[in-house]
Amino acid sequence: xxxxxxxxxxxxxxxxxxxxxxxxxxxxxxxxxxxxxxxxxxxxxxxxxxxxxxxxxxxxxxxxxxxxxxxxxxxxxxxxxxxxxxxxxxxxxxxxxxxxxxxxxxxxxxxxxxxxxxxxxxxxxxxxxxxxxxxxxxxxxxxxxxxxxxxxxxxxxxxxxxxxxxxxxxxxxxxxxx
Length: 178
Description:
By secondary structure, this protein is of the alpha+beta class. The protein has one domain: Protein of unknown function DUF2237 (Phenylalanyl-tRNA Synthetase, Chain B, domain 1, 2-Layer Sandwich), CATH 3.30.56.110. It is built from three helices and seven strands; from the N terminus they run βββββαβαβα. It has helices spanning 102-110, 137-145, 167-172; strands at 2-5, 16-20, 25-33, 36-44, 94-99, 132-136, 151-152. The protein has a four-stranded antiparallel β-sheet with strand order 1-2-3-4, with no helix packed on it. A three-stranded antiparallel β-sheet has the order 6-5-7. A hairpin with a 2-residue loop joins strand 3 and strand 4 (36-44). The longest helix is centred in the middle third of the chain and has 9 residues, at 102-110. It is globular, with a radius of gyration of 16 Å. The termini are far apart.
């Protein structure tokens, strides 16, 4: 196993590294903060030896640029690598990097997906307002139509989200447009 930069296919991202066994099995994440490194382990099963079910080697965001990291604290993404990357095995399309709000967390709970309650047995800390999380694009669209959609980070939202959401709608709630 070897350490590698883990920033959605880009080696110029934040000080985050990942180590994996090349496919099935253990992944470890380290984040440098003030000279200290914190580690996180997660079990990641993939159907194709680690290439993510036909995922692109360089994932793109909704702006056509290289996909940026969404969050590693808490660690998010279908592949639990901090990125809203997606592939064939991600049937929910966890591709929208959203900034959680109290209103959205309550909306999601009422729809049967409680994202705010910690589940320590599976390593899920529970989300709170301000956390970034890779949402299923159809759920974000559903929340938009109900007036409860959270803000989004376009540079960390995978282009696959455009199968379910319009770019104009995503831009209307973007946190990263000047």
